[in-house]
Q: What sequence folds into this?
């Protein structure tokens, strides 16, 4: 549960265009935790979720703003 808390409480950025909303999270410092964070983001993105309004949702891990 501590890992999930760390992932959902990290800082990040949001970019939106006509087709997609992209959420980029700052990577966690510990390699094992960062790997888990990246896997979770890939899984969530792989669900091909659409938000209200019809835009696709993509969640990723990255160092800098979009």
A:
């Amino acid at each position: 549960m501590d890992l999930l808390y760390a992932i959902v409480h990290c800082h990040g950025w949001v970019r939106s265009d006509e087709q997609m909303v992209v959420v980029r999270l700052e990577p966690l410092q510990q390699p094992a935790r960062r790997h888990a964070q990246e896997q979770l983001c890939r899984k969530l993105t792989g669900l091909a979720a659409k938000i209200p309004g019809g835009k696709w949702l993509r969640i990723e891990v990255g160092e800098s703003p979009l």
